[in-house]
Amino acid sequence: KLALQDQRQKLPLSVKDLQCLTETIARDQPGGLYVAARDAAVFTIGRAGMLRSSETVGLEWKDVHFTRGGEVLLFLPKKMNPGAGSRVLLASAPDVHPAQTLQALKLLAGGDSASEPVFCTSMYNSGALKKTTVAPQLKEGSRKGW
Description:
The chain is an alpha+beta fold and 146 residues long. 42% of the residues lie in helices and 15% in strands. The strands form two sheets. A three-stranded antiparallel β-sheet has the order 1-2-3, with helices on one face. Strands 4-5 form a two-stranded antiparallel ribbon.
């Protein structure tokens, strides 16, 4: 039997596409520095960890741990089984730095006093982004050539 790839499977962004996307967001995103940093972090963390959009927007600061080696360790809890989940270690790669991206966002969100969730709708609103918000942004970025 031949194993066929699911035709609906989404391909990840290339590092070059991700760089272009984050540079454009930082330059052109309305809503200030926080929104630009948040959107860049959403794409960087999602790409580096190969996370689903629901896992990315569901991150809480209590589940983000920075290591001494410059990596970031994420705990992805299972909603249906409290206490259970998986851990994802994100290391830096050439031109992709998940820990630095998250540390910058955390600083803008209030530093050590930053509370859940990681990806809020705005600097002044603690409501979490929804996965249905992230997918259209990515599509729009692709359409504009980010």
